[in-house]
Amino acid sequence: MTPASVEPSPDEAAETYREVHESAEFEELKRRFRRFVFPMTALFLAWYFVYVLLGAYAHDFMSHKLFGNITTGLVFGLLQFVSTFAITLLYVRWANRVFDPAAEALAARVKGSDA
C-alpha cells in the first residue's frame, strides 16, 4: 500500500470505491438515509400540494378571517416556513445521532485499509 502522504493511484482509488460501494455497511448507510429522507420528502410535498390545492380551489376556506386581517391561507402559508425549519431540524438531529456516526465509521474503515 501507499504511505498516507502519497495519493493513491487512480486504479487503487477506483478499487477502493468499488469495495465501499459494494459493502454491507454502505448498503446499510443508504438504507438508513432513504428510510428517513423519502418519507419526510413525501410528507412535506403532500403538505405543500394540499396548501396549493386549497389556495386554488377552496377560496372561501383560505380567505376565512381568523382574527383581524389574518386568514386561514396566511396561517397555512406561514406554517409552510415552520414545517421547513422543523424538517431541517429533525434531519440535522437525526444525521448527528444516526447517520454521521455510521458514515464516519465507514470512512475510518476505508482510510484504515489504505494505510
From TrEMBL:
Domain of life from the UniProt record: Bacteria
The keyword Transmembrane helix is assigned to this record: yes
Pfam families: DUF485
TM ranges: 36-58, 70-92
Entries under InterPro entries matching the protein: DUF485 (IPR007436)
Record's keyword terms, sorted: Membrane, Transmembrane, Transmembrane helix
Segment forming the signal sequence: none
PANTHER family linked: INTEGRAL MEMBRANE PROTEIN-RELATED, MEMBRANE PROTEIN
Protein name per its UniProtKB record: Clumping factor B
Species of origin: Luteipulveratus mongoliensis
